[in-house]
Request: fold
Amino acid sequence: MNSELAIQVTDLTKRFGRFLAVDRVSFQVGRGEIFGFLGPNGSGKSTTIRMLCGILLPTSGTGMVAGFNVAKQPEQVRENIGYMSQKFSLYEELTVQENLDFFAGIYGLAPADASTRLQEVLAMGGLAAYRTVLAKDLPGGLRQRLALASAIIHRPSVLFLDEPTAGVDPISRREFWDLIRSMAAAGTAIFVTTHYMDEAEHCHALAFIYEGRLIAAGPPAQLKVGLHGCLMEVAVQPADLVHALEVLQAHPRARDAAMFGASLHVTLDSPEAVPALEASLRERGIATQRMEAIVPSLEDVFVSLVGREVDA
Reply:
């Protein structure tokens, strides 16, 4: 395994009987890199993470994490990674410090090192003033920081974050990502799944998985440039929004169309198709308030990629 790589995956596959959950997935994550793993629910994200954490044995292919083979050396993998899930999984009847002391013991930190590390993670997470507070009494953002502190108290070289900010307020999400960026800058490899496309923008590289297969991968900017066609934003009266979406989705000149907040995004092969789309909307009594070309977002990329797979 390349010493600069924290994760190296080649043709990783998992079958459950006849069901193919993960289909020959390949990617790599460098040290100090934030890697976003995106896909709809049921696409294979969690199964992939479980294999990479040494919890689930691959059917075939290879996975190397922190220099260890996930199939042959699962114990060493688990000793060198941190994992934080969407669901708060710490001990709610223990205080902040008791939770951290427990995990320091689980990972075998020597008492002196555990004491030093405790102070470090308390300071990093802004938890020092809450060390005697029960975990169940912490607000959501602080519970999230406690979960992160517990996952990294043993200084893992690779950190897995499975939808870590689901249900957390925007300010806490931003503060959490500040912590993640600082950890990556210090050399920790971060593997994160998220449904928030604004969070995906913070990643150095992304991979999109759909029905167990990787359908695209690369830096966010590269993926947005690679969205073929012309992306248009269409504004209509709110009462016409659903009808307009149906019209655009059925139009032969539109490659795909989706609802984005109070407007619609539609991908065309060329801007020359705009008059034809406007005419179709007018014929159905829908007045177009605005139809203009826009720069695609990662959400546009995600919708386009999944739509292409569904139509294939």
In short: The first helix runs from residue 45 to 52. The first strand starts at residue 5 and ends at 16. DSSP finds eleven helices and 14 strands in the chain.
